[in-house]
Amino acid sequence: DAKTTQPNSMESNEEEPVHLPCNHSTISGTDYIHWYRQLPSQGPEYVIHGLTSNVNNRMASLAIAEDRKSSTLILHRATLRDAAVYYCILLTGGGNKLTFGTGTQLKVEL
Amino acid sequence: GAGVSQTPSNKVTEKGKYVELRCDPISGHTALYWYRQSLGQGPEFLIYFQGTGAADDSGLPNDRFFAVRPEGSVSTLKIQRTERGDSAVYLCASSLGVSSYNEQFFGPGTRLTVL
């Protein structure tokens, strides 16, 4: 699977937007970009995924660069409950096993 | 509705013993996955089932690890002759299908400690 690169940690203040970057320069044309997050002492939780176009759902937005070599997960208003490790994962067309890296630890402060 | 459940939530065993970890997927989900997570690391893929058959077991570390899903629903991960290095959180996930756009729903995990 193609590799992703994320910062180890980021900090945000509550009620402010958060932009979590992910680089995937070796992405192939059939790779889907998935984001999962893992809250402390819980299993991972699906956040959002996309292929080429930007995507929005109730949890977040996903902005995908035109060349698809990078993407950004956007939390519009961070809350304390958003403090988690966020994983950016590429899934090859027809693939299904998730390859987690070390992700980005997001800290949210009052 | 009910999510993915895993039992037990915690398991402490002695080196050399046999353990079984159970996963109940979301009803109707045909795909079931096992991952394990060591402290400070992201989850690591072990095996996945499509229906009753193991479609990809490339992540199983050695032949002490085995998993079954006899009726295409509940799955059991079996570890023989446990070693201290097997200590980790074992996570189960299920999904409607196996396409790249299918989201996986994870259970809370079983924390295995081998003394």
Report on this model:
The complex is a heterodimer of chains A (110) and B (115). Helix content of chain A is 0%, strand content 45%. Chain A is built from no helices and nine strands. Chain A has strands spanning 9-13, 18-23, 32-38, 45-50, 55-56, 61-64, 70-75, 84-91, 104-109. In chain A, the strands form two sheets. Chain A has a five-stranded mixed sheet with strand order 1-9-8-3-4, with no helix packed on it. In chain A, strands 2-7-6-5 form a four-stranded antiparallel sheet, with no helix packed on it. In chain A, a hairpin with a 5-residue loop joins β6 and β7. Chain A is globular and about 40 Å long. Helix content of chain B is 0%, strand content 48%. In chain B, the strands form two sheets. In chain B, strands 2, 4, 5, 6, 9, 10 and 11 form a seven-stranded mixed sheet that branches. Chain B has a four-stranded antiparallel sheet with strand order 1-3-8-7, with no helix packed on it. In chain B, 34% of the residues are buried. The model of chain B has no long low-confidence stretch (mean pLDDT 95).
